[in-house]
Design brief:
globular; single chain; 2 domains; 45% helix; D-Maltodextrin-Binding Protein, domain 2; 450 residues; 11% strand; 5-stranded mixed β-sheet; 19 helices; alpha+beta
């Protein structure tokens, strides 16, 4: 048989075999690609979550059968989007970034997947007990903590030294007002204090709830009557409005966590009271201009220390409506693991690792060396009490929120009225009286009041 008789339309037989093998390989690859699951992750645009997204290529490399689709949103927008999605069961997201407020409420509604089959090496016992408990319902875990936080007071040591201010371990709000007055220098673009002013149950009302607590107030009495028109609320909110209008930056009613972080990290705020998670960002020279002049102390108190500093965890949960639950569990287990914390330490520096979740992080000498605030933050988290949270008895759990389903709407509506008082659109009395009436109406409609 001649050589040419061995040819076919593909050329010679060997070439045909090579083509057939390549075609089969491409077909298999295409089949695998078709079978790869895409999980859609809804998260907040905070710095730690942005790092998570940036480093997620390591997860995809180790899990070629899983593709990540990110939806990164501003905090108020995120809360609205995920709440709507979970309540309607639309299944838009496979992983949701939610917190200690949502987890027990949504778990009770069977809206979240119980996390009962974590990887063997996850080491759940390493997760700090207060954080773990806050993400559980009826003894079952429903979310994994990405980071956890309390609150603290940050200040500029250079400005305080120049003003002759000696900071104490447990300041009062009266002292904070005196300090703000002493260092306020708007002519040089430095403001005495920055505080959350952006309206929202998780924005201005998160901070203001702790302020009301320490001034001796609370959201509801034991019969679920709102107490927003009480003398304690009037004193706390009046103090806040006066403090921020006298010594805060212009446009404070538009500032939430991220906006105040930007102001403080660029040297424009002499003081800032907010989440402990900011300590790592403010100590990172890639993100902060005040690394060498950063001081910190405890959140101020007024008449009681109860409820003066919050407990919160941004956590990753899987909605029951997800059709990619196994892949979602793979991701959230990775993103909240010791392995991930090591990855952030190696890639971004130990000062940037997600704080507040694992005992092993705080026992790590590398983290201790990079984060002088580590023990302070750990103590703040472990000394919070979401149950014994107010001077007088209250019927709810939560420090900077009330653990009932309707609080999102209540908190945001009250936050808008207080923002109106801050900008002068309403008087303090008008704002609190309106907030009282609207909250009474909501609680009556929800069946708490007759």
């Amino acid at each position: 048989m001649s050589k040419c008789s061995k040819t076919n339309k593909w050329g010679d037989i060997d070439m045909g075999k090579r083509f057939t093998a390549a075609f089969a390989s491409a077909l298999l690859a295409g089949t695998a690609l078709a079978q790869a699951e895409t999980i859609t992750i809804a998260t907040v645009n905070n710095g730690d979550m942005i790092i998570m997204q940036a480093l997620s290529g390591a997860f995809e490399a180790a899990h070629p059968d899983i593709t990540l689709d990110w939806v990164v949103l501003e905090e108020n927008v995120l809360r609205q989007r995920v709440t709507t999605d979970i309540a309607t069961g639309s299944g838009q997201f496979d992983v949701m970034t939610i917190g200690t407020y949502e987890v027990p409420i949504w778990a009770q509604q069977d809206w979240l997947v119980p996390l009962e089959t974590l990887p063997a090496d996850y080491d759940l016992d390493d997760v700090l007990a207060p954080v773990r408990d806050g993400l559980s319902y009826d003894g079952t875990l429903y979310a994994l903590p990405f980071y956890a936080e309390s609150t603290m007071l940050y200040y500029r040591t250079d400005l305080f030294q120049a003003a002759g201010i000696e900071v104490v371990d447990q300041p009062t709000y009266e002292q904070v007002r005196d300090w703000a007055a002493a260092v306020h220098d708007p002519a040089n673009d430095v403001y005495g204090i920055c505080l959350r002013g952006k309206p929202g149950w998780g924005e201005n009302m998160a901070f203001l709830s702790t302020m009301v607590n320490t001034f001796g107030g609370q959201w509801f009495d034991m019969d679920w009557n709102p107490t927003i028109d009480s003398p304690e609320w009037r004193e706390a909110i009046g103090f806040y409005v006066d403090l921020l209008n006298s010594y805060g930056p212009p446009g404070a009613s538009s500032n939430g966590f991220n906006e105040n972080l930007a102001l403080f990290s660029t040297g424009k705020c002499a003081m800032w009271i907010d989440a402990t998670v900011a300590a790592g960002m403010l100590s990172n020279p890639d993100q902060s201009q005040v690394v060498d002049t950063l001081g910190f102390t405890a959140t101020p108190i007024a008449v009681t220390p109860k409820g003066s500093h919050w407990l919160w965890s941004w956590a990753l949960a899987i909605p029951a409506s997800s059709d990619a639950q196994d892949a979602a569990l793979e991701f959230i287990s990775w993103a909240t693991s010791k392995e991930y914390i090591q990855l952030v330490g190696a890639e971004r520096g130990w000062v940037s690792v997600p704080p507040g979740t694992r005992a092993s992080t705080y026992a790590n000498p590398e983290y201790q060396a990079a984060a002088p605030f580590a023990q302070f933050v750990l103590d703040a988290i472990q000394t919070t009490d979401p149950i014994d949270n107010t001077l007088n008895p209250s019927p709810y759990t939560g420090i900077q929120y009330v653990g009932i389903p309707g609080f999102q709407a209540i908190g945001t509506q009250v936050g808008q009225m207080i923002a109106a008082a801050l900008t002068g659109q309403m008087s303090l009395d008008e704002a609190l009286e309106s907030a009282q009436r609207s909250t009474e109406r909501t609680m009556r409609q929800a069946g708490y009041l007759r």
